[in-house]
Amino acid sequence: MSSFKISVRQFGVHAILVEWPNRVEESILDEILQFIQYLKKNHLDEKEWEFIPAYNSLTLICKDTVLDFDYLKPKIKEWYAVKGKIEPATRYLWRLPVSYDLEFGLDLEEISGELGMSVERIIELHSQSIYTVYGIGFLPGFMYLGGVPEVLEVPRKSTPRPKVLKGSVGLAGKQTGIYPQDSPGGWNIIGKSPVPMFDVKKENPCFVKVGDKIQFYPISMAEYQLHKIEGEVGIYNLEKKVLDA
Amino acid sequence: MLNIIKSGFFTTVQDTGRYGYRDKGVPVSGVMDSFSVSKINTLLENDENSAVLEITMTGPTLEFEQDSYIVLGGAEMAVTLNDIIIENYKVYKVNAGDILTYGKLLKGFRAYLGIKDGFNTALVLGSRSYFKPITEKDSIKKMSSLPYTKCKLFSPKISKLKVDSVLDKTKLDVYKGPEYKLLTDNQLAQLFYREFTVANENNRMAYQLNELIEGNKVSMLTSATLPGTIQLTPAGKLIILMKDGQTTGGYPRILQLSDMAMSILAQKRSGDHISFKLK
User: Fold this and answer.
1) Same domain flag for A50 and A107
2) Option in A9, A52, A198 nearest B22 (CB)
3) pLDDT tens, B105-115?
4) Which N-terminal stretch is annotated as signal sequence (chain A) (predicted)?
5) How many whole angstroms separate alpha carbon A19 and alpha carbon A52?
6) pTM of the model
7) What is the dihedral of CA B75, B81, B86, B92, to 10 degrees?
8) CATH number at residue A20
9) What is the rounded CA–CA span in Å between residue B256 and residue B117?
10) Range of the domain at A232
């Protein structure tokens, strides 16, 4: 038995939006990931359909077909009701190195003032927490991470930077994350990770998927430079751990 | 090879798009006006996914190194092949050394150049569509060249097509978006009983409209967006996501353009008028 009530809505003629209760919750994300596995295995061919999970929603896209929504809506509800407990795809905890050197952490000193907390304590709290990947979007490889400790919540910058450098680690409100490429951005920048979050040369260009977990660990400037070179030549070794369902 | 003598304002290689990576945040890209491009590839008897050049506002000057066949389409521009004026949706033979020159933009905004069997630029994540930094370049550059396969002989089944062009159309068919229900009577009246003007902020990622409607303060969790999704910001701005648009967003998705409406809008530029019609 599935424990949440879902809504199924038409989204243009090529897509369907399935929504769970409007909350950021691990149990909801689990259900979405299980449902994706169930649909892929039993009803919707992966070669024809795209599955886009984010927070409390799952968008199903079939680009070449005009979907029969009246047929699919009850079907999707029925499939969800009978899906039972499914093993989602294997999930990983990724440990990502971050240099919190002030050269990279452009806003560390400023938010230290705002939060009334030392830079060392901010780094400690930021790197102790384990974050959940609730979505990937905005830019290729950009993760929406949940799980920022309440004491680290700090408003986004009043004026966004026209250019935030690739690899920069940002903090804003309930969110933290890595800019996977140079981009304009309004988050407070607290460090930089040498790990490429998106690499078109790899068969799987983005190693992280929705449902995985992330932990950051502090590295020195020298280690940053070394990992950076490894990243550029594509030989970096990431620390990962299989998560139990 | 096709040699780029002049690149034009913004000229890119595009096919039907890059699918299967949206869950990693990669936009689909692909031709903006797929209606016009499908006619071009049909005339050339190409695969529908064959890559074409998308030419925005001002066109390039190009030199063909091998024989082949071409078809122009989309926006109307004054185009000459070795100084002879040529027209849209007609198959032309090109010989090694021929020069194709784009002149004044006459109607529409995006012109297309299709070639027999398509351009053979590198596939990146399954598509040839330019989108930086997925592809190295964001547009073609002067003094570079694009590969295509030589074709000595091709007898097209149809050599010319009369196309019911998208260029004169201004009415965009829309479907209800996932957050359509949030719209008040006042907002609905503002959306469907007036014309809108395309803002200066318009490109392959998104088209903004100048006129504001009543805003929407609803906060929602980030969720998927599609090409053609119309978002309503808290300030009342309408943002229409296009082919290079981001794959997720946090604004209410009030309407969704039909495929044909995407092609119609792709031919509009700053100051052009459009209106919405609910399907």
Assistant:
1) no
2) A52
3) 999 999 999 99
4) none
5) 12
6) 0.94
7) -100
8) 3.30.1360.40
9) 33
10) 91-243
